[in-house]
Amino acid sequence: MTKVKNLIVGAGFSGAVLAHKIATELNEKVLIIDVKSHIGGNCYDYWDKNGICVHQYGTHIFHTNLKEVWDYISQFTKWYPYMHQVKGYIDGQEVPIPFNLNSIHQIFPKPMADQLEQKLIAKFGFNVKVPILKLRGTGDKDLEFLANYIYEKVFLHYTLKQWGMKPEDLNPAVTGRVPVYISRDNRYFQDSYQGIPMEGYTNVIKKMLAHPNIQVKLNTKFEQQQFTYDRLFYTGPIDEFFGYELGKLPYRSLRFDFVEFEKSYFQSNSVINYPNNYDFTRIGEYKYFLDNQSDKTVISFEYPEMFEEGKNERYYPIVKDENQELYSRYLEKANALKNTYFLGRLGDYKYYDMDKAIARALELFRRIQ
Ligand SMILES: Cc1cc2nc3c(=O)[nH]c(=O)nc-3n(C[C@H](O)[C@H](O)[C@H](O)COP(=O)(O)OP(=O)(O)OC[C@H]3O[C@@H](n4cnc5c(N)ncnc54)[C@H](O)[C@@H]3O)c2cc1C
Questions:
Q1: Quick one: fold of 2-80+196-247+317-368?
Q2: What is the pTM of this model?
């Protein structure tokens, strides 16, 4: 039996923020364990033999409007000022995603593109994201055509692959939210702060955990009977913590097929989506993120699949009412426990971008303080 003051399960961003805050501001001892053989959770990256920084669990781009989060993480890294763009392979062209005025001009003949642009600006103004549901409601045949085109070519088949179900079956609200961006801004995010840590995400987390009060134990799965603690912070799956006694919370997973090529670049952009071709959803090319120079390149094909214990990783909670209800019942049990806190994308059964996971951990720290 190991006795500790603070036990943290999971060495991803959520666990690392708490470990760092407790160690530095409360001056208390922390043991942080992870079942994996490395720190960093899903944000784990490493330098391969060609000097390319590869994100093992898929492309990760840091972006936030939360200045507090940006300033906090900036203690541990300098940033490569990277602004993410995504292209979609649509009707034989690589066009900006979300679909914007540049996409319209790339896909449609000029007179048609000009007319769509004029109508969009006249109706909605410039530099706004308009859900396609709104376009459908305008009563204008051209805008309705555009809405249907975007739905079919950008959204529908991508969603079928990504989630293995029709958009309507997933959550009725999701369908109409797909935007057309009335802008020439090709960036995927408009957040004030965007970048890639200059030495990678793993090194950020390594620095966060480099404190005499913090002990890290890898290859260690949480077993309740092996530890006594004053406080437990659990960033693993909440249903697993309770032995799945109410049932399993479903997740969507991904398979990454990594391939190295003997050439400088494989594609024209870091991420290209394939909504309508192939079984994979997208291809990521890693050297773009930090502009790593090499005459070789590494890419990953991303194949969505259902999460199965022992086969793959939990990635995306599946947004459905019945899953949310099951989670609420686990949350009730969690709230009844003393000195035990659940957080992170697995503990909260919620998709968080990195900045939101960090903000959630900072907020929890303020609460326990
Ligand atoms: C494919 C993909 C792409 C993404 N891209 C982006 C992006 O571009 N930008 C962005 O901001 N966010 C992105 N994210 C989200 C980002 O990965 C998360 O915000 C982040 O990983 C959350 O950190 P976390 O600590 O909550 O969870 P995790 O990183 O999953 O860490 C949880 C840790 O707990 C460990 N653990 C679980 N159970 C146990 C147990 N029983 N015992 C011991 N250890 C355990 C796990 O091994 C894991 O290391 C992406 C996510 C995915 C899936």
A1: Rossmann fold (3.40.50)
A2: 0.97
